[in-house]
Amino acid sequence: MIIRFVILCALFLFIEFYSYQAIRTLIKLRWVLVSYQIISLLILVFIIYSFSQLDRSVGQTKQFMFTTGLMLLVYVPKIVVTIILLGEDVFRIGAGAINYFIDNSVNTNVFPERRKFVSQIGLGLAAVPFLSLIYGVTIGKYNYKVIKQRIFFPDLPDAFDGFTITQISDVHSGSFDNPDKINYAIDLINEQNSDMILFTGDIVNTHAKEMHPWIDTFKRIKDHKYGKYSVLGNHDYGEYVSWPSEADKERNFNEIKELYGQIDFKLMLNEHQFLEKGNDRIALVGVENWGNNFKKAGDLMKASEALDEKEFKILMSHDPSHWEFEIKNHEKNFHLTLSGHTHGMQFGIEIPGYFKWSLAQYVYAQWAGLYEHLGRYVYVNRGFGFHAYPGRVGIMPEITVIELKKGDKVA
After folding, report:
1. pTM higher than 0.85
2. Contact partners, residue 119, CB within 8 Å, separation at least 6
3. Which domains does the chain have, with CATH numbers?
4. 29-57, pLDDT tens digit by residue?
5. What is the DSSP secondary structure assignment for residue 154, as one 8-state letter?
6. Residue 116 neighbours by CB distance under 10 Å
7. 159 C-beta neighbours (distance < 10 Å), count
8. CA-closest candidate to residue 232, choices 299, 167, 316
9. How far is the C-alpha of 93 from the C-alpha of 85, rounded, in Å?
10. Can you tell me the distance from the alpha carbon of 101 to that of 112, in angstroms, rounded to the nearest whole number?
11. Contact (CB, 8 A) for 175 and 387
């Protein structure tokens, strides 16, 4: 633990050193440079102190989220500057070596001085993540997007051609701080007039009480003709804090399960039920959380017991790694899986239809949007809320509307 702390402090100081070099190259006023050093030191001390006060029995707090946001706001731009100036130092070392061994008689200074324009480039590039992160915590975190996705299935029962599903995921109610914005999002959900709404887990960060101020707000989600269903996410199990006893943890877990019912969603716990329309039916399957690196409570065989591979199935499973490791090649043939969990890391670049990037893609094979394998699909919702970092940059909070279509085309 001490070694890790020392390494972390050394990394922060390394970044601070290079950031200061850029400032010093451009600004010569001593009082500005001293002020910069004092402010940087105070911010670093505050960040280290705040994280050292994290109480494992409480979990994420408003102060923790503020500190995380502040750390990213300050150090992501400084990392950009560090990379630029570090690159310049590699050049300076190379040039210095040439001066020393080849032309030492002409050059009295072995290493070239820092070039002003390089520092200007570094600070200019650093302004991009700095302004983006400010946008993320002020506007982005509540910049809800309704994303519509039409998916074609050759074996979709005729009566369900055109059937619509609204999906929300990863509410993380303990992070909310703006009732007006949440009410606006609920209005967006209701405006979609879908046949059914599905909620794929993570109603809280950790504690059931986080949702209590928002129950009436989410009860405003209107009844859907074919129902309102949900499953659990990894945060719903209270795994990320220390509890006084197993009984307290279990009590909290039971209260979280009850929350879904309190907002009028039927919680599916490794089970399925049929949705009937006309003379046709499809199966809705809901499993508990199953994650490759998280809790594995989902039981796919139990949830799909008595279903065969020919019946059309929609599966709710919070973590998309479940699809990657178990579902996509499963003998029961799950036609469509709906997941969430990744949040798209709440930070990335997306140009719809052309380009999509996030650090999430280096952790999850399926991390945002629609993916297909041998005619089986998974849709990964980017999340309704936010967690840890109190904002969103590039990867906006999402309300998904999926339309099922009979046929061979994907659009």
Report:
1. yes
2. 21, 22, 23, 25, 26, 81, 84, 85
3. 2-138 (no CATH), 145-406 (3.60.21.10)
4. 999 999 999 999 999 999 989 988 888 88
5. T
6. 11
7. 15
8. 316
9. 12
10. 15
11. yes
